[in-house]
UniProtKB/TrEMBL annotation:
Any single GO BP term: cysteine biosynthetic process
Name by which UniProt lists this protein: Adenosine 5'-phosphosulfate reductase
Pathway involvement of the protein, from the record: Sulfur metabolism; hydrogen sulfide biosynthesis; sulfite from sulfate
GO molecular function: 4 iron, 4 sulfur cluster binding; adenylyl-sulfate reductase (thioredoxin) activity; metal ion binding; phosphoadenylyl-sulfate reductase (thioredoxin) activity
Free-text comment on the cofactor: Binds 1 [4Fe-4S] cluster per subunit.
Keywords linked to the UniProt accession: Cytoplasm, Iron, Iron-sulfur, Metal-binding, Oxidoreductase
Broadest EC class assigned to this enzyme: oxidoreductase
Reactions catalysed: [thioredoxin]-disulfide + sulfite + AMP + 2 H(+) = adenosine 5'-phosphosulfate + [thioredoxin]-dithiol
Family annotation (InterPro entries): APS_reductase, PAPS/APS_Rdtase, PAPS_reduct_dom, Rossmann-like_a/b/a_fold
Function: Catalyzes the formation of sulfite from adenosine 5'-phosphosulfate (APS) using thioredoxin as an electron donor.
UniProt similarity note: Belongs to the PAPS reductase family. CysH subfamily.
Active site: 230
GO cellular component, one term: cytoplasm
Length: 235
């Protein structure tokens, strides 16, 4: 643990005061072939994808296709690959595991209890993520501290114990206004559902638009009174 803390500290010093593109380039140089970026095609992730493509950084990009995403998300995936001339590798849940899950709780059984919902998230998102991260050293995310209370305590560079990997959150201290301005300035493609009140876009059955003044995560698993995370970013 001491070795990990020292490595994180040394790396944090190296990355401090670097631009996002410079920091990503530094990580790619230090960990060749072992830097991956997980995109859900959200606005934050689109910003990072644009930076990776613009500077031709050797970062492997993947997404988690749960099988229950919005049509608009799939369309944006295709438009993004075409715009930036890149390939985003999809990771899918295990077929037999999904069949067992649906057999046990029903096709929409996640509405019935937090336990069922978390089981669905694990099968469709967490397990595929573990496969996508396996063998890599740096996991880049589009997390911002404003998004939720859980994320406000995160660091730009931190150790993810559950996945045994270093996580780099380059947009952590960006505000919503800064992000939207960057998207506008660079004409970055984004999901049209954002313009319809969807602050955070996940699986179609589990995401709704939010009302003005609502917490950005209120649209996720809105039927629950629970910690609004799926397990991907829990320390």
């Amino acid at each position: 643990m001491t070795m990990k803390k020292n490595l994180l500290k040394d790396l944090s010093v190296r990355l401090d005061n670097l631009s996002i593109s410079e920091a990503l380039a530094q990580l790619c140089e230090l960990f060749p072939g072992k830097v991956v970026f997980s995109t859900s095609l959200g606005q934050e992730d689109q910003v990072i994808t644009e930076i990776i493509a613009k500077y031709n950084l050797p970062v492997k990009i993947f997404t988690l296709d749960t099988g229950r995403l919005f049509y608009e998300t799939y369309d944006l995936l295709a438009r993004t690959e075409s715009r930036y001339k890149i390939k985003i590798k999809p990771y899918y849940p295990n077929t037999s595991t999904v069949e067992k899950l649906v057999g046990d709780i029903g096709i929409n059984g996640f509405y019935e209890s937090p336990e069922n919902r978390k089981s669905c998230c694990y099968v469709r998102k967490v397990e595929p993520l573990k496969r996508a991260l396996a063998g890599n050293s740096i996991w880049i995310t589009g997390l911002r501290s404003e998004q939720s209370n859980n994320r406000s305590s995160m660091q730009k560079l931190e150790w993810d114990e559950g996945n045994q990997i270093m996580k780099f959150n380059p947009l952590l201290d960006w505000t919503m206004d800064e992000m939207l301005q960057y998207i506008s300035d660079h004409k970055i493609p984004y999901n049209p559902l954002h313009d319809k009140g969807f602050a955070s876009i996940g699986c179609a059955p589990c995401t709704r638009a939010i009302e003005p003044g609502e917490d950005p995560r209120a649209g996720r698993w809105w039927w629950e009174v629970s910690h609004k995370e799926c397990g991907l970013h829990i320390k």
